[in-house]
Amino acid sequence: MELLISADSHVFEPIDLWRSRLPERFRNASLPISQAQAKSFAAHPGGTDPQARLSEMKTDGVSAEVLYPTVALGLFGLDDPALQRACFEVYNDWLCDYCAVAPERLLGIALIACYDIDEAVEDLRRYRARGLRGAEVWMAPVAGLPFYSAHYDRFWAAAQEVKMPVSLHILTGHDYSRKLFDDPRSNSLEWFRGPVNRKLDSVMTALYDIMFSGVFQRFPGLRLVLVENEIGWLPFVIQQWDYYFKRFRDTLDLPIKRLPSEYFADNVFATFFNDAVGCRQLGFWGTTNCMWSNDFPHPNSTWPKSREKIDQLLGHLPPDQRASVLSSNVANLYGIKTKSLTA
Q1: What kind of architecture, by CATH, is found in domain 5-340?
Q2: Quick one: residue 295, left, alpha or beta (phi over 0 = left, psi -120 to 50 = alpha)?
Q3: Which of 54, 177, 178, 287 is deepest in the core (most CB within 10 A)?
Q4: Burial of 218 (0-12, 13-18, 19+ CB in 10 A)
Q5: What's the CA gap between 109 and 295, in Å, rounded?
Q6: pLDDT digits over 305-340, tens only?
Q7: pTM of the full predicted structure?
Q8: Gyration radius of the chain over CA positions
């Protein structure tokens, strides 16, 4: 039976996590958390209980999962640097305890506040030492701190040094996601623009700023993960970047020396779970960079019928390519010892 490792699953943080654990000076701070909507994600006990999680994974035939937050995604849009870092520390500490139950199966991703980059480097190293497998930063930075600035260079260098992949997850930062919990009925036209148009604008801008500003040129060991943005848009965009790079590289002063597609091949990974168009293209590109996920325990997850969905999406691929996107890519990225895993 094929080994399945989800490159993008989620925990569900206890609703009172921050109220009970934040330092006293932050206890009354306003946090972008809608308890009513957050509770809609709490259908599976494994979101909060790691022992229940292992049982739910077995039901779905999944051997390991890379874990991102649910409630805490909105905290990347906070304007208060000290509050954001304190909130992330509370979450990361809780996540360390959660993953410690089965560290080869539950692979936690630390949330890193990037307002102060020295603090970001400190937090990255601290949570790497505590066993978390990657770092998540905002996908849409605050105005004044774009990814093309030198602000992040010490962080990229540290992530490269300690071999900590850096993730950009949807709904994180200073974009449309700050209004995520607005009632969509109040302006349905604008609300519906977010899940596709604005999501892709945010991730394309982030990837462009990082790639074309020479981050991968300066830090060739850095690994970047695009999470829950799907993959069908990537081959077209990378193709177009290659075309215009080749057309204008002799007349424009760009800090990159290689084709964008070459940086992508060496430095960038992307997750998918419900992208029939992107999966049809995997046969000729991306099988070494794309990673399957089940998005569990969110309502649109493929659980508990992930294998049926995989057969629908990836049935056209030969076994070696299926194995790449279902397990080996994510295992190699995060150093997962697959021999110790059984579904």
Answers
A1: Alpha-Beta Barrel (3.20)
A2: left
A3: 177
A4: middle
A5: 14
A6: 999 999 999 999 999 999 999 999 999 999 999 988
A7: 0.97
A8: 19
pLDDT band of 343, cuts 50, 70, 90: very low
Q: Which residue has the tokens 């304190």?
A: 86
CA-based nearest residue to 226, from 299, 172, 168, 149: 168
pLDDT in tens, 164-222: 999 999 999 999 988 876 767 778 888 888 889 999 999 999 999 999 999 999 999 99
CB of 61 closer than 8 Å to CB of 1: yes
Measure the CA–CA gap between 251 and 228, rounded to whole angstroms: 36
- In the chain, the N- to C-terminal Cα span, in Å, equals 8
Token pair, residue 79, equals: 């304007």
Closest by CA to 269, choosing from 234, 295, 236, 297, is 234
Mean model confidence pLDDT for the chain: 95
- CA pair distance 211, 213, nearest whole angstrom: 6
